[in-house]
Specification:
Shape: globular
Number of strands: 0
Largest sheet: none
Strand content: under 5%
Oligomer: single chain
Number of helices: 48
Distance between the termini: 90 Å
Helix content: over 70%
Radius of gyration: 34 Å
């Protein structure tokens, strides 16, 4: 009874209780330690060095946080998170135990105190960050949404317990024992981590671990530029920065007055510990009983005013009564309101921003903006105290000035907040500019209502997609009415939108959709009942898994598979493996006659189960004659994130009907798949008609890492891959918030491609020259075969010559204005000689000297008649045929190498064995086989 009540209250399901408590206890210990070491070390710092040194501490904390964050993020990408976490815990435990020992010996100096003051700040940033990365790896996105609130309560409990524990230990046994207890408690996290790893993470494959570790993957655009380009994000960043400055100024005053009133470091640590915990208790009470009510009454942006106005009233009171108890009130409002009302309001105020941009910008604001604001507050305090020599009480005037700025920014944010909603709705419309101009005259909500009431399916779907995760009460009734819409796509989208509203919204209407004869609607409705209503998983699975309707039973099985992704207990409880096996056997019978939707649904179910035993069923249907089933088999292969399917998925890239779904399937593997694709490319193990799509797959991730991979692909020996990589880079650079590319690196690639272009012209000229020569030592048939081999190679090189020119101009588009380069390129390839000459003249004025010297003489080649390959203005000179062959074998891809090897066999000269020896080991099997055959043939001559 107690267990079921507990599960219902916290929405914890079978198989999740143990792991949830482990993670909750982990964060409880981490925050407990933080609330022991922070007040203790702050007390030691203030008692020994005084509050005058705090501003320098703020500046050092800011610099250290930014630098350590940079190197820490790089370490996360390179090393196992388990190794990093254990190392971090051991290092900080050692630090704190050493400090306890130093306190026993009464050895303290300014350097030691600064070191530990910075260590506490680093501990707070690193260990909590590591915990949430670990939590993202342990729980999938669905579980995280349900369980992170329950797990996060461990942090609140730790904040309360840690401070009060510090009060007791510091006042009774002294700071040295408090620090020693913290050092020991950190070590308790290691066995918890090992249990969590064994229970959940160990079962994940490489792709799943990497993807979850970087679940909130970075956008390929710069965070700073994203914030600058959006008024909404700009005001949020400024509000956060001003809030941090005010908090640091309040903290300085509070610390200074507390240090003056309580000179003993043990008593001061006890004082800090008590009040820090008390502030956490107040924050918890406000969060539980006031936050939602205040948000409902005042709205999101108006609620943001409560914190600055509260601090302002406290500051006015302090100017009247400049005493410690007033500062406790001000510090209490800052600590309590910030972690409850203000935090909830800020989270809601960023909702209109698209999900991916929101996460990237928020991470930047939380780390960089917070750190910069901390540094600014340090410099400000140094100027006020050191240079102007003002008493601490004068800082209150500065706080009031910043509070005034803070309030102005909130009003600016209010306007930007509604503009973001308005633009989301207007951008969702498929109509013309006239319709959008008319909509600007209407209010945002009335526009949305009119769209939802319309019969335009495309507009409705676009609007629902734009306002996804945004909770607008005025739209609720209209979204519920869409559940009766004739379009099945609209009904499914409306069900998805209901997640933004209260749990159990429209449960009766959604439940009635279970009997629908559309598989997607049945699944969407059942998933909603499972995730967003008070109906338990037991009730749903017991009712529907064995339902006589295959629509309902199949949807229930798919829901079970999704729920059991990281929860083997629920899979075991409802016999998931047995049910999947029975369904696969049923569908595999020769005489079976089932709907294609039924086969598609079981394919997706297998994809979620992660059971390799049934992957053969997916493999069998990857080449089904029905494209509908094939598409779902491709999706299922992507869901498995199993490496065995990578090559098959890559093969589908060359098929127009399956290209897009294959890219989406590969994206399921996460960013790590790009490394696998690179390895396959370097080993030349991919089909020729597939390799050209590699850049498109990499581009689809739209991350900084994808840009790095595309730049690496520019070093490929295959001109087609290089050309497609330049096209992908150009597409990414069309985004207004694009990441700036290293222009020096782009210049190097242009010069390298120009050299490749020159060598191609030289090879063509050499081979054309050889074709024209007579050879009396050969008979007519032999000479004809030889010249055919040469002409075949020339044709391949001529195609690559055109591709090389296009590649050069695509690279130039990354450096110069895209439209200018496009005009020059089309002029150069024009059939009119005058257009070609004008294009060359235009480039002569546009290009920088370094590029002009390297490229212009080559580009002039295109102004000459196409048959004049020996023209010397391009810098081309004839080389020996053997040197040409050696260069092509060394620097070209598979297609050219095979043509070169065929030419060598026709030349019938054993001396070429010496030329081929350096290339005896080829990555591509086809080239290796041809090379071995050529050497064997020459050896017989």
């Amino acid at each position: 009874m107690i267990r079921s009540t507990f599960k219902k209250i916290f929405d914890i399901r079978d198989g999740e209780i143990y792991i949830s408590f482990l993670m909750q206890f982990y964060i409880f210990l981490v925050i407990t330690v933080l609330l022991i070491v922070k007040p203790t070390i702050n007390a030691l710092f203030l008692s020994t060095l005084g509050a005058d040194q705090l501003p320098y501490g703020y500046i050092l904390v800011a610099v250290t946080a930014i630098v350590s964050s940079y190197y820490y993020n790089r370490a996360i990408q390179l090393f196992s998170i388990k190794r990093i976490v254990i190392s971090t815990l051991l290092v900080f435990s050692t630090f704190f135990l050493v400090l306890s020992f130093l306190l026993h010996l009464a050895i303290l100096n300014i350097w030691i105190l600064y070191f530990y003051y910075l260590s506490v700040s680093l501990f707070a940033v690193l260990v909590t960050s590591q915990f949430w990365i670990l939590a993202n790896m342990v729980f999938n996105a669905r579980e995280a949404k349900r369980l992170f609130g329950f797990i996060g309560s461990g942090a609140i409990a730790g904040g309360i317990f840690g401070g009060y524990l510090t009060t007791i230990i510091a006042s009774t046994y002294g700071n040295k024992i408090a620090i020693a207890v913290a050092g020991i408690l950190i070590l308790c996290c290691i066995p918890i981590l090992n249990s969590v790893w064994k229970c959940r993470i160990k079962r994940l494959n490489l792709y799943q671990r990497k993807q979850r570790k970087t679940r909130e993957y970075e956008n390929y655009t710069s965070s700073f530029r994203i914030i600058l380009s959006s008024d909404h994000l700009k005001y949020l960043a400024l509000i956060t920065g001003v809030g941090v400055i005010v908090a640091k100024l309040v903290d300085f005053q509070f610390s200074d007055f507390a240090n003056s009133a309580i000179p003993d470091s043990d008593d001061l640590a006890s004082f800090f510990g008590f009040w820090f915990s008390t502030f956490n208790v107040i924050a918890l009470l406000i969060q539980l009983f006031l936050t939602n009510r205040l948000l409902s009454f005042f709205g999101v942006t108006s609620t943001l005013l409560i914190l600055p106005l509260g601090i302002a009233l406290g500051c006015l009171l302090f100017l009247t009564f400049p005493e410690l108890w007033v500062l406790i009130i001000i510090k209490g409002m800052d600590g309590s309101f910030k972690q409850s009302i203000n935090k909830a309001s800020l989270e809601l105020s960023i909702l209109p921003i698209p999900y991916q941009i929101k996460n990237q910008a928020k991470s930047y604001i939380d780390v960089v903006v917070d750190s910069l604001a901390t540094g600014i507050s340090g410099f400000l305090l140094i100027f006020l105290i050191r240079r102007l020599n003002l008493p601490t009480s004068y800082i209150t005037i500065i706080i009031l000035l910043f509070l005034f700025v803070w309030i102005l920014l909130i009003y600016k944010l209010r306007e930007a907040y509604f503009n973001s909603f308005r633009s989301n709705i207007q951008n969702s419309l498929s109509g013309d500019d006239t319709k959008k101009r008319e909509l600007k005259k209407e209010s945002t909500v009335s526009t949305a209502i009119r769209i939802l009431r319309s019969e335009n399916e495309k507009d409705i779907l676009n609007l629902l997609d734009r306002i996804n995760d945004i909770r607008l009460k005025s739209l609720k009734i209209h979204i519920i009415q869409l559940l009766k819409h004739p379009s099945e796509a609209v009904v499914s989208a409306a069900i998805s939108q209901l997640y933004s509203y209260d749990r159990g919204t429209a449960v009766a209407q959604v439940r009635s959709l279970i009997t629908s004869k559309n598989d997607e609607i049945v699944f969407a409705a059942m998933q909603y009942l499972l995730l967003h209503t008070d109906l338990t998983g037991d009730k749903i699975f017991h009712s529907y898994l064995d339902h006589p309707s295959d629509y309902i039973a199949n949807a229930a099985l798919l829901c079970l598979a999704k729920e059991a992704v990281d929860n083997p207990k629920i899979a075991e409880k409802y016999q998931l493996t047995h049910r999947v096996e029975a369904k696969v056997n049923e569908l595999s019978l020769p005489e079976s006659d089932h709907r294609k939707q039924e086969i598609a649904e079981i394919l997706i179910t297998i994809g979620y189960t992660g059971l390799p035993k049934y992957y053969s069923f997916i493999s069998a249907h990857l080449y089904n004659v029905d494209p509908y089933i094939t598409r779902h088999a491709i999706r299922a292969a992507g869901l498995t994130q199993d490496e065995r399917f990578v090559t098959s998925l890559m093969d589908f890239l060359s098929e127009d009907d399956f290209n897009e779904v294959a890219i989406e399937a590969l994206k399921n593997y996460g960013g790590e798949i790009t490394k696998t694709i690179l390895r396959l490319d370097q080993s030349e193990g991919l089909k020729d008609n597939v390799r050209q799509y590699i850049p498109k797959v990499v581009q689809s991730f739209k991350t900084r890492s994808s840009i790095k991979v595309l730049l690496r692909l520019l070093g490929s020996k295959d001109i087609l891959i290089r050309l497609e990589a330049t096209k992908s880079l150009n597409r990414l650079q069309q985004d207004p918030n694009r990441l700036r590319l290293d222009q020096n690196k782009i210049t190097r690639f242009i010069l390298k491609e120009s050299k490749y272009y020159k060598n191609t012209i030289r090879a063509i000229a050499t081979l054309q020259n050889a074709i024209g020569k007579e050879d009396t030592s050969r008979d007519y048939d032999s000479l004809t075969e030889l010249n055919i081999a040469r002409e075949n190679l020339v044709e391949i090189l001529q195609v690559q010559l055109d591709q090389g020119l296009q590649c050069i101009f695509k690279l130039l588009s990354l450096k110069y204005d895209h439209s200018d380069i496009e005009v020059a390129y089309y002029g150069l390839i024009s059939e009119h000689k005058e257009a070609k000459v004008n294009a060359v003249e235009f480039l002569d004025n546009l290009l920088h000297a370094k590029l002009k010297n390297a490229m212009l003489s080559l580009i002039e080649y295109h102004v000459i008649e196409s048959d004049q390959y020996l023209h010397t203005s391009s810098g081309t000179h004839i080389i020996s045929e053997s040197a040409c062959i050696s260069n092509l074998m060394k620097n070209r891809g598979k297609k050219v190498k095979l043509a070169v090897l065929y030419l060598i066999r026709q030349l019938q000269e054993p001396r070429y064995i010496t030329y081929l020896k350096p290339y005896r080991k080829q990555k591509n099997r086809e080239v290796q086989k041809a090379l071995d055959a050529t050497i064997a043939y020459l050896s017989t001559l």
